[in-house]
TrEMBL record:
The lineage of its organism: Eukaryota, Viridiplantae, Streptophyta, Embryophyta, Tracheophyta. GO terms for molecular function: alkylated DNA binding; DNA-3-methyladenine glycosylase activity; DNA-7-methylguanine glycosylase activity. This is DNA glycosylase. One of its GO terms (cellular component) is nucleus. It holds the Pfam family HhH-GPD. Belongs to the alkylbase DNA glycosidase AlkA family. GO terms for biological process: base-excision repair, AP site formation; DNA alkylation repair. Keywords: DNA damage, DNA repair. It comes from Arabidopsis suecica. Coiled coil: none annotated.
Length: 294
């Protein structure tokens, strides 16, 4: 699958950055409310008795029998994160959910014979460096430069660590076809690792919202790059890349819209895909690819 990067200018993503972060914050806030709307489709939740609210009246009880009294009859909702899309069983679960929650998407899934596969196992630092190198380039040209980049390190891909990237000068990188701007992006990523702002361990533990906020601090990494990283490197199951042109075109065609949907409309239309919006997005790319071949 060829995905064209949209992080051409780090500053051009400000609008999408804000929309994504606000959307994620609203989602987390909504999940903590005491009740769900009838149309909500939050999966894998655990219900527990709500904690007792404060009251000015005194409650008397016998020592052997203690009862919690709450003025709020609504249960407390605890969201359990879905497992990553690294196993066939998880992908199968996602497909069943999408087919039952969205008739139109379900029909598309039925007509597509090959299910999605998410099998990249590269460490986060290598994946992010690769994302920077691939930006704004055709796949063939990007792979050529990436292979030259890997050849600079002892041990190949396993040798791509922050210290070794910092040791390469911009001149060294230009010799293999890396632009001066991308060289500065690679160095900034490596420095963020060296000073503790980022690490592979931290990245694996961060929430989706934290990843967007932290990774977009790196020069040259915008929300689109983070979304692709979360889907294809971390295998996060519930990522909706609202700024991706291919996904937007797929949603437009799937639902018969007149115009390309904006961030808010994307969130609204794809809400029913939760908690597997990454898989739904994968099918939007397949839908557009199929239309191109006709």
């Amino acid at each position: 699958m060829n995905i064209v990067a949209s992080d051409k200018n780090p500053n051009s993503n400000n609008l999408i950055n804000s929309a994504v972060v606000m959307s994620l914050r609203k989602t987390l806030t909504a999940a903590n409310q005491p009740s769900l709307s009838p149309g909500s489709s939050i999966v894998a939740v655990q219900l527990a008795d709500s904690e007792a609210s404060g009251s000015s009246s005194r409650i008397t009880f016998r020592p052997r029998k203690i009862r919690k009294v709450s003025s709020d009859p609504s249960p407390r909702i605890i969201i359990t994160a879905s497992p990553p899309l690294s196993t066939k069983s998880t992908v199968d679960l996602a497909l069943r959910h999408l087919q039952s929650s969205d008739e139109l998407l379900g029909a598309l899934i039925t007509t597509h014979n090959d299910p999605p596969v998410f099998e990249s196992s590269n460490p986060p630092f290598l994946s992010l460096a690769r994302s920077i190198l691939y930006q704004q380039l055709a796949t063939k040209a990007a792979k050529c430069i990436y292979d030259r980049f890997i050849s600079l390190f002892n041990g190949g891909e396993s040798g791509v660590v922050p210290e070794s990237v910092i040791s390469l000068s911009a001149v060294d990188l230009r010799k293999i076809g890396v632009s001066g701007r991308k060289a500065s992006y690679l160095h900034d990523l490596a420095e963020k690792y060296n000073n503790g702002v980022l690490s592979d361990e931290l990245i694996m533990k961060m929430s989706d919202e934290e990843l967007i906020e932290r990774l977009t601090l790196v020069k040259g990494i915008g929300v689109w790059t983070v979304h692709m990283f979360m889907i294809f490197s971390l295998h996060r199951p519930d990522v909706l890349p609202i700024g991706d042109l291919g996904v937007r075109k797929g949603v437009k065609d799937l639902y018969g819209l007149k115009d390309l949907p904006g961030p808010l409309q994307m969130e609204q239309l794809c809400e029913k895909w939760r908690p597997y919006r990454s898989v739904g997005s994968w099918y939007m790319w397949r839908l557009i690819e199929a239309r191109k071949t006709k």
